[in-house]
Amino acid sequence: MALSKKSKEAFLGPLNVNNPVLVQILGICSALAVTVQLKPALVMGISVTLIVAMSNVVVSLIRKSIPTRIRIIIQLVVVAALVTIVSEVLKAFAYDVAMQLSVYLGLIITNCILMGRLEAYAMSNNAFDSLLDGLGNGFGYAWILVVVAFVRELLGSGKLLGYPVIPQWCYDHGYENCGMMLMPAMALILVGCIIWAHRAINDEKK
Amino acid sequence: MKMNTESNVYTIVYAVVMVIIVAVLLAVVNQGLKARQEANVRLDMQKQMLVALNQDLKNCDNPAALYDALVQDTLQMNADEKNADIIRFTVDGQTKYILRLHGQGLWGGIGGYLALNEDKNTIYGINFNHESETPGLGALIVEEDFRNQFKEKKIRKDGNIVSVAVMKQGKVCEAGADYQVDAVSGATITSTGVSDMLVSNLQEYSTFLMDSRVCPQEKASCNQQAACSQCGCDNCQNGCQDCCKDGCAQCCQNGCQDCACCNNGEKCCKDNNACCQNTEACCKNTDTCSEKKCETKQMED
Prior knowledge:
The structure holds two protein chains of two kinds. By secondary structure, chain A is mostly helical. Chain A has helices spanning about 5-10, 30-35, 40-60, 70-95, 95-105, 110-120, 125-155, 170, 185-205; strands at about 160, 165. Chain A has nine helices and two strands; from the N terminus they run H-H-H-H-H-H-H-E-E-H-H. Chain A has a two-stranded antiparallel ribbon with strand order 1-2. The longest helix of chain A has about 30 residues, at about 125-155. Chain A starts with a helix and ends with a helix. By secondary structure, chain B is of the alpha+beta class. Chain B has two domains: about 70-210, no CATH class; about 220-300, no CATH class. In chain B, about 40% of the residues lie in helices and about 20% in strands. Chain B is elongated and about 85 Å long. The model of chain B is unreliable at about 210-225, about 230-250, about 250-265 and about 280-300 (pLDDT under 50). The chains are: A mainly alpha, B alpha+beta. At the A-B interface, helix 4 and helix 5 of A face helix 1 of B.
């Protein structure tokens, strides 16, 4: 099945050129909060991807019936319902991760990426394109989280996904974990570095 | 017919229908997953208590089974006690009590479980949890390095609850080295929070903690609930006042499992509510042993 150019653009655009975190600078708050370790970052990325994609589809399907005056409220209700379901499911099947994500899971509702995509894309495009757009934006958000969390967990606690990767030999010879990496400020600085690199590369293309 | 999606009636009906659908959906999800979620919460609590009891959870495949193997019973606290019940465990044949703690850290709540030895004075182990303390600083209270300091520390001195103070490195508290641990450097407020939490929570448990003093020889001073607990009677409801007054035999008849007030090491025999020097012997040979010992005891009285 060949995808139309528009569909391709809907999925691939947010991964790089139009990345929600790097270019639109959305969803920074949760990016700082849940990236101390890789595991919560992965779960958060997957959760956001699922919720953006699903809410995009739902809103796109009912977009013609939504009264314009209360459209934002309807979008919020859809997102809030999905977030609540995801958080309940996590509490039942991945309790420790749900505890680590704590309030940030609930705060997905206020993640600007969601409202932004619903209002800008799902309200005026068909369900399939909206699904791709949601997945694209979700993954675009998720890969930044994973990269930041990878660096922070590796340098901050010498582990990846909870498993020690830096050999004891290094510690014996004076290597120390960088406590700074555990602070939220370093996530901001890392995101800043990624944005810097991203802009530099994309500018050259133009 | 095309509906006018901008009319007031349509907007209101749409909103109502939408909300009802979502509410039903959420209710169904919530009810469907409730059992699993509660099991998770319970398991998490049990794991935290096991950590407080110095159990190695990393090499434990089934924490719930380990918990069930160690847990003995729950001691009912007085109605006016704010804290939850105290849970009694048996670890390596010794009785341990677990007290629940809750307090305030820097950014949010902190809590924990304190495991005490049978003397209700020496700390066997402790576990902390926190909502949102700073990683690398306040959050270090959950690490073993900090928690292990508490082992073998004391909480009572000269009949008072002094608790364990979390002090800045180098400082010494007046109660002595047995009553202090080193704070986490750079996390003063979290450390103070832990210190305050211990003091305030132990005060709430004071009835339980102070009752473990050596049972007085004079039966006259034995009265009310306190006396009952001093005698090792945890489940005396009404017969407490009589618990010590009439000696150990009476104590046993009132349903006390372990009469420490007998002073000569006698225990209650569960079969016939009599006292005996040796519980095993007593229960194996109920007729002779228990009769003899209880008579002796009553004659002394």
